[in-house]
# Entry
Amino acid sequence: MRVLGIETSCDETGVALYEPGRGIVAQALASQADIHAPFGGVVPELASRDHVAKLAPMVESVLAAAGRDLARLDGIAYTAGPGLVGALMVGGAFGGALALGLGIPAIPVHHMEGHLLASMLEAQPPRFPFLALLVSGGHTQLVSVAGVGRYRILGQTLDDAAGEAFDKVARLLELPYPGGPALAAAAASGNARAFPFPRPLIGRGLDFSFSGLKTAARLAIEAEGARAGELAEATRADLAASFEAAIVDTLAAKCERALAATGLERLVVAGGVGANSALRAALVALGERTGVRVHYPRPALCTDNGAMIAYAGACRLLGQPASPAAIVARPRWPLDELEPPRGS
Ligand code: KG4
Ligand code: ZN
# Structure
């Protein structure tokens, strides 16, 4: 079985070829960071246009690197949502048309299911059931995962996603786009105790709220700016470290509570914020303290990529109609609407 995966939900074009038994045979990723950087955030129309320009040559180069040709594919998986509708339409139209031409199934994949299953591509994949912490630019969720398509959302953010909070505070700190990694880099030399930021909802339930923390960070940044005229490098690092610590403490505390409430013994980290090294260190420490096994994919499999879409598509290939009836593009798509693959 050979599945080509196509990711175009936001600002990365990802293409990968997955074969069970061999894993990811070849993959390619194109970031649009340079295109969006002057605007300080993703410009949807520019994102769509760049996906259009990049997809075909990337598919050709992935197949060439794998030594395979189109005729030997068994399915084409594409991200059908959630995401930017124009960007989704590009991947859906491209993948759907290619599948139609080849007479093979096109498999619409839920982007967050892709993230959630990404650690299955690592050498030591987690066994079901597990608790998943999904932390990306658009989502912050704790999910009880019994198997592929068997998801129960235990808690989620009431306002901003963790990645979104990173990006917004990075912008306030005048750090370059993309903000999350820039803020993490600035935090590395800062004092995480310099600013006592709130840990919203930390002692209560499994939902998250980051907008109050974001406001606290904004007020502190403004106060420091007003006091000193402009932010000194060391103060910026302290603000970044204190903000990062507040997010990490909150995410780790909620994971611990969800593990205790469910009795689950494995924790899987997924999504772009999962690439954050302070978060990874905190969750490893949590695992050591509680005996829970913590899995996180390598950073390149945390952020958006085609490999996770190819893998999730392969899990759902059986039972897909050979000719796609329509392009599926769902900008909003709750994860818990998914069902297990047909026949499983
Ligand atoms: O999963 P992802 O690549 O795309 C979405 O599905 O949203 O996640 C992107 C998010 C962005 O908000 C980005 O700033 C954040 O993940 N991110 C990070 C780091 N790397 C990416 N946040 C904190 N630390 C990082 N190292
Ligand atoms: Zn993502």
